[in-house]
């Protein structure tokens, strides 16, 4: 190959790298979130995490509850509230309770607030997280996504008098 062939190839590779970077950053830019890859030492897997998103910090994988049935654990970790600020992390599809809990805590800690602790773990079920604007939260699990949402929302509405928002609802089935 001649020098001009190498320069041409280098130009093509540069254009491809730029295009790939642009395409990979588009979902994050469209959501106006700061996203990065996060790897944990528990199961040596990497996940996309988005700080500042209301959808928590979710592991890559199939849509919750959409995959083949298998035994799996899920967990929700929630930070201590600071004047209404609340961060959480969720994990699902793990083969052990310990791994699901560890992943949820790590995703929560990536949100930057202190005091992330596991508030709920579940096995082959669905969970929901409901919050109010002043930082109160409710979480529960059930056998279906609809039931988890309904029960958790009802618990919040009974206590908070209707100021409730479902922030997460997902399955680990």
From TrEMBL:
<dbReference type="Pfam" id="PF13827">
    <property type="entry name" value="DUF4189"/>
</dbReference>
<keyword id="KW-0732">Signal</keyword>
<dbReference type="InterPro" id="IPR025240">
    <property type="entry name" value="DUF4189"/>
</dbReference>
<protein>
    <submittedName>
        <fullName>Uncharacterized protein DUF4189</fullName>
    </submittedName>
</protein>
<feature type="signal peptide">
    <location>
        <begin position="1"/>
        <end position="30"/>
    </location>
</feature>
<feature type="domain" description="DUF4189">
    <location>
        <begin position="73"/>
        <end position="171"/>
    </location>
</feature>
């Amino acid at each position: 190959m001649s020098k001009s062939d190498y320069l041409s190839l280098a130009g093509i590779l540069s254009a491809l790298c730029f295009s790939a970077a642009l395409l990979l950053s588009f979902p994050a830019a469209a959501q106006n979130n700061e996203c990065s890859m996060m790897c944990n030492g528990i199961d040596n897997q990497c996940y996309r995490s988005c700080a500042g998103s209301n959808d928590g910090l979710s592991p890559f994988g199939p849509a919750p509850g959409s995959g083949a049935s298998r035994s799996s654990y899920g967990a929700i970790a929630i930070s201590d509230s600071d004047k209404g600020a609340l961060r959480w992390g969720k994990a699902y599809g793990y083969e052990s309770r310990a791994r699901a809990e560890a992943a949820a805590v790590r995703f929560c800690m990536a949100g930057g607030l202190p005091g992330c602790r596991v508030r709920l773990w579940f096995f082959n079920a669905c969970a929901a997280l409901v919050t109010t604007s002043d930082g109160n939260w409710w979480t529960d699990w059930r056998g279906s996504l609809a039931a988890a949402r309904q029960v958790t929302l009802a618990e919040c509405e009974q206590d908070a008098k209707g100021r409730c928002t479902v922030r997460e609802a997902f399955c680990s089935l």
